[in-house]
Write a structure and sequence with these properties.
With 508 residues, this protein is mainly alpha-helical. It contains 20 helices and no strands. Helices cover 72% and strands 0% of the residues. The two termini are 17 Å apart.
């Protein structure tokens, strides 16, 4: 049930009516039932994996908490609870690894031994990476004492399966999301206004910007030799497609959730205003970045073996540089995991390590960069320098997209070479714009350009602290309804003629 379909609209409207009419004490039960209906509609078989992950994490957290509370020796209790934690994490991540990476492993073993090995017919459940990371975070929070284990299995099941976040996140934290799910909510026109505006804005980004950009991306990357003169445009279009699809989808999810009075975590904050790769990752897919920082990077950096490594590095490289080595290694491990999380392919692993290496080198060479700026009399606060840093970061990020959108490493390198050696923008007009052919291509490009301009203006205002959506939502209900209706009507008028494809991040 795609969130851009008419069926989903009927599902959502029906659910809203029921949700606000039933007694407030059972609202969470309505959400649980609706979440499972939504999930099982996608795949009944996939629902078994969702139930498996839910029960493993629920029982594991209860077991850990019981041990920690009843143990007379705190050290021994922690040790016993750690065994529960490790077992549950192995069971959760083992399921994810088996379904997502088994065929990748089989394929590469086959290539290594030059044999033709048949791949397994495995399903990839909707949102499996999101709910696995979410339950793993919950288990770690209970183990560290940051959260109390949920005693009610069905309440916990709602935390894991809440339908707006199942398609592409964001990755929720138990202590922040769970109380909102179980608290009674009353119909509030202001909150509903915010939700409607957020949904309309997300649909605009997904169904106009992302869908039109995808038309050009598909054509250019499918025939790189034919469209070699516009390789760089293919890359830039992919940036529009990826951002429009992912952030637009998140806007829809956050808007849908808002209609029920529930606030999911923000996942984007004007990422293309970032001045470094690390800053970019604090603005792009924020919940994944904070999850990796809190549950992987910090534990790694503070681990015993990292402390021992840090002591050795301080003796070899000096106190300042040696202190940074464990942090840099942790960063590389984190981004290797981020790459693998994005997909079972060497392209994704390379993409992750590319980001990790740049961040690691930036940390190690920070002193040298500061000295160079001092010698060149560069003022960090100068407007031109801030603009330069934004442009530099944008270029570095776009280079990484070559490996994200190309089918192979070889194709990525070919597209990169074409981008700097050939330039023939007229080839854009040779790309067919669906049923209307090339005759409509200039209008498609104009639509994309105006849409990107609107997105840029809104992003600049938000970067300056001006909440455009919030200001619109504060207007009277008829005005908000009229504006939303105009936006929704414009989408089929200015979007591609074909039906919208699924979200890029839906099968992560």
């Amino acid at each position: 049930m795609s969130m851009t379909s008419n069926l989903f609209l009927i599902f959502l409207l029906s659910l809203l009516v029921i949700y606000y009419l039933v007694p407030h004490t059972v609202q969470w039960i309505v959400l649980l039932a609706a979440s499972y209906v939504y999930y099982l509609a996608a795949s009944a078989a996939a629902g078994l994996f969702l139930i498996y992950s839910t029960f493993v994490s629920w029982l594991g957290a209860l077991g850990m908490e019981r041990i920690l509370k009843n143990s007379e020796d705190r050290k021994e209790g922690k040790k016993a609870a750690r065994k529960y934690l490790i077992l549950c994490l192995i069971l959760d991540f083992g399921m994810l690894a088996f379904l997502k990476y088994t065929n990748f492993l089989i394929f590469n073993i086959g290539r290594l031994f030059h044999s033709d090995v048949s791949l397994l017919h495995l399903i990839l459940p909707l949102g499996i990476s999101y709910y696995t990371f979410q339950t793993a975070g919950y288990l770690l929070d209970v183990y560290w004492g940051r959260a109390e284990a949920e005693k009610n299995c069905f309440r916990f099941a709602l935390f894991v399966s809440f339908f707006p976040q199942m398609v592409q996140g964001p990755i929720g934290r138990f202590e922040k999301l769970a109380p909102q799910l179980y608290t009674p909510h009353y119909f509030d026109r202001q909150i509903v206004n915010e939700g409607i505006i957020r949904i309309a804005w997300g649909l605009f980004k997904k169904m106009i910007l992302a869908e039109w950009a995808a038309v050009f991306v598909d054509a250019i990357f499918a025939e790189p030799d034919r469209f070699s003169g516009i390789a760089v445009f293919g890359l830039l279009m992919y940036t529009v497609q990826l951002y429009g699809d992912f952030s637009g989808g998140i806007d829809v999810m956050l808007g849908v959730s808002c209609l029920f009075g529930i606030r999911l975590d923000e996942n984007f904050r004007q990422p293309f205003f970032a001045v470094s790769i690390s800053d970019f990752w604090q603005r792009w897919h924020i919940t994944l970045g904070t999850w990796m920082k809190d549950y992987l990077m910090y534990p790694l950096t503070l681990s015993r073996w990292m402390n021992r490594l840090g002591k050795r590095c301080r003796k070899i490289f000096g106190k300042k540089k040696g202190r940074l080595v464990p942090v840099c290694i942790s960063n590389l491990i984190v981004f290797f995991v981020v790459g693998i999380w994005h997909g079972a392919s060497w392209n994704n692993i390379g993409w992750g390590l590319y980001n990790g290496v740049i961040i690691a080198l930036s940390s190690l060479l920070a002193g040298e960069f500061a000295l160079a700026k001092q010698k060149l009399h560069i003022n960090d606060k100068a407007g031109w320098y801030h603009g330069f840093m934004m442009l530099r970061t944008f270029i570095l990020i776009n280079i990484s997209w070559y490996f994200d959108c190309a089918d192979s490493f070889g194709q990525a390198m070919k597209m990169m070479r074409y981008s700097v050696t050939r330039f023939a923008p007229g080839e854009l007009l040779e790309i067919s714009s669906g049923k209307l052919g090339t005759a409509y291509t200039p209008y498609a490009l104009l639509t994309l350009a105006l849409g990107c301009l609107a997105l840029l203006i809104v992003s600049i205002l938000r970067e300056k602290g001006i909440g455009v959506r919030e200001k619109i939502a504060a207007r009277p209900v008829p005005a908000v309804a009229a504006l939303s209706l105009v936006l929704i009507v414009l989408i089929p008028m200015f979007g591609p003629m074909a039906a919208a494809r699924g979200f890029l991040y839906a099968q992560f």
